[in-house]
User: Fold these one by one.
Assistant:
Number 1:
Amino acid sequence: MSKTQVTVKKFEKRVASKVSFGVGTIFKSIGTFCLKLFKVFDNKLTIMIVPHSQGKVINFQTNVFALILTFLLAAGMISSFFYFNKHSLASNREITSLTEQNKENLASLDQLRDENANLFQAAKRFQSSLSQSLSLLGIKQINSNSDKPASDGDLSSLFNSKEVVSGTSREVADIQELTSYLEDAVEPIEQIGKMLKNQQTLFTEIPNICPVKGPYLHVSMAFGPNIHPKKGIWYIHKGMDFSTYRSGDPVMATASGQVVTVGADSSYGNFIIIKHKHGMYTRYAHLSSFRATKGQLVEQGEVIGYVGNTGVSTGPHLHYEVHIGSDVVDPAKYINIQLQLR
């Protein structure tokens, strides 16, 4: 063995010896510390409870470790109490909030049910009106439940009591039924639209619109028996009087036709007569001025003159008549409006 190797061996032995000594010292110090700590925790304590009265003094012995452990357990229990109490209050607030939301949802649901009931009342009226219209026009009635025998009406299955399928509310089932009915109603309504479009020319040839428009328009005298505004006696009024409380409002032709008379007399004042198809005539009297001329072809809704107070009149108004042949008829039967009668 060489001299260098011997030197290395001696160095390794010295290092190993120092490390072993250092480790031993550390463990010894740890053991000493633990022993001192154990002695500290094992110190005996006597706790005495002395009552103010002449009662017996209560005392018990313990050690530092048991006292610290008791303190930690008490602190843990108190902390747990406050922690769970905080979460309990938060949970109670959340439950209260959910309860209020549930009340609001129930109120909304009740309102929805009320609106649903109103919807079906309107659907009943719609069904009745549509059925009458289809019957008058000779169009096939709607039957959304073709597999079932018909009962009181097209919506009978909708308004009669029925079992609701599992998992579906009554309201949803009814709305689905109503939707199905309305989808089936589209075709006959389209047929009505086509029929009206085909008859559009006929409608313009019949006096069926109001001859005067205005914000204060009203019927000042209806057709039939009335008291004469000047003579004060009963007589047969052969037309309808329309008033807006002012002169100058435009007067329109109630149907397409040809102007056959533009004239004036002591009774009607300034007046116009229009000849329509199907043997019908209309007269417009007490005009302040004319806009149409004799022989002119006019369209329904075209302005032919202006409201006035000429002839036998107690104020600005239009006297309007409808004649079929030699007969005078009530214009209200043809005008599709509802006006206030003064």
Number 2:
Amino acid sequence: MSVPAPLAPERRTRSMIIAGLSTVVEWYDFTLYLYLATVLSRVFFGGGENALLATLAGFAVSYLMRPLGALCFGHLGDRFGRRYMLLASMLLMTLAMLATALLPTFDSIGAGAGVLLLLLRCLMAFSVGGEYTGVVAYLLETAPTHRRGLVTSLASAASEVGALLAVALSALTVALLSTAQLDGWGWRIPFFVGAALAGAILLARSTMHESPEFERQKAAGTVPTSPIRDTWRFHRGAVARTFAISALGSITYYVGITYVPAFLGSAGEVGESEALWLSTVAAVAVIVVTPLAGALSDRVGRRPVLIGLALLCALLPLSMFTLMAGGQTLLIGIAAVVLACLAGGVSAVAAPATAEQFPGEGRLSGLALGVTMATAFFGGATPLLAELLVRHTGWAAAPGAMIAVVAVLVLPVMWTLRETRPR
């Protein structure tokens, strides 16, 4: 049996940088839909009272494709290598983004425009289902052992950079164009930009080296032939723990960050442009917090950081959404930043903590079963559910209550979690 030669430091670093930058583009493309939700509701669903609900419902339905994508791409990555999986997911995202930019609108073909948008959203969700878990596993397996928390958290930080680009370009487009220009052709600009970025990253990703962990498996002859079946048979406890950790990460992200512009817009306290700029500030805060939380987990461990974040998520979101409903711009900004930092911290530590629940053999399949299943339940549908709760109860803090309930439910899992930080 031949032992694979370790990657030279410069080649290792280059491959990790490309993997991280790839996540920037994937998350730009994916979150753009939510940041332009109010615009897309007019362009593809004709406007009106229920158009925003239809747009958010489309986002929720597409999320059902994420677990399926994660399982398909996870099987590909566990059987044939992380690199090929990451190439396939980026290619699919590039094509779906370009097709979205070219879609006809409601004024052109009626309700069929919304159907086409939903179908392309499903393709993007299928792609992202494999993308994030693939990058997390690749970074964990390529990073120096004592820096796994910091390096793997960069997948989360990079996704926030992508979200920042999405919200910033959305805000700029909305600010510079009239409503007629925006609805007529301006909405296409951010999607064309996303397609171009994805194509560029696809070319860069083709130069990445395979994960050292997968090379080890090939040399040892331990590459699994049925990774999904084996993971479910031997690592159900790990799947359950991963589901719990990811549930908190998903609801804090999709309610505490991506839903906020729609919440502010529907509450009528700020306009579309101002809401997007506030979200831009929050995204910057997340980018700063995420690597700090990952590095802290390298120093003190994943478990204590996750416990502390779960306690904060149980206590703070209710008051933060109440502040945002008050209408004072400064308080709205502070509340949005606090919520974003909570979400960024959870996502940062969840990245290494979930990947470390599984051995290298079948790791991607384990993440698919745990992470993306949790995201499907607590991610895509939660903006819609939050909007419905606010409308039907009149309680502005209802989205914060959703986060708090999930935090309380998963806290016992965090408390009993086995420490996975390498010593």
Number 3:
Amino acid sequence: MGLKIFSFGALLLATATPAFAEDTDPPPAITINGTATLVSDYRFRGVSQTDKNFAVQGSLTITHKSGFYVSVWGSSVDDYVTASTQAHQEIDIIGGYKTTFGGTTIDIGALYYFYPKSRLPGDVSSSNFIEPYVSVSHTIGPVSAKATVNYAPKQKALSLNQIGPSRDSLYLAGDFALGIPKTPISLAAHVGHSFGPSWLATDALGAKGYTDWNLGASYTYKVLTFGVQYVDTDATFITTTGRNASSSGVVGSIGVSF
């Protein structure tokens, strides 16, 4: 449920004719939506970003009726590198355009990954990068399917040591969702593949990359959503604590939307 911003003229009309305001007001030009979520593990493309610990996440999205939108999403993370006194955060800044015709939706935009205070003084490595994306989804009744392509051009942050040489990144994903009719329960499945070397997987230093997948279910009660997912990959990423952050696991979540 979003906060709706009306034009000043529409507000005057609603005041002058309250009995008919609901029928005559035009759709809002801008809508604002937000979420706040607690997850038992933050998985990015199958790999834990919190060393398999809890994370707090939130988002704010502003959408114009034309289809253009901007969004900010944030999460606590463990960058596995810097001292514990440093801030461990990921902030994603997103801008794009979405349009729907029939049951098909096309979404195109770019996502900037920003990790504030993630490097100690004198550290010349880079962690921030930009990643354009495009997705096509189609919905038939309670069933929807989506194909997504994310391509990040060559950047220093994508190199295996985040110093250089610069590398690019290609990620292809498919998603499937089913809302069970007359229930608040939804089912979802995902599979994705990261092509080429990846700093997310220590055994993906060759050309093959790695694949991630998950199966999940969610239950919605008013503004609350409860979720559970089984997540796995065919990669290996050993953290500084000795854990394999890319191994299989069950992730639980509880979120609120407004």
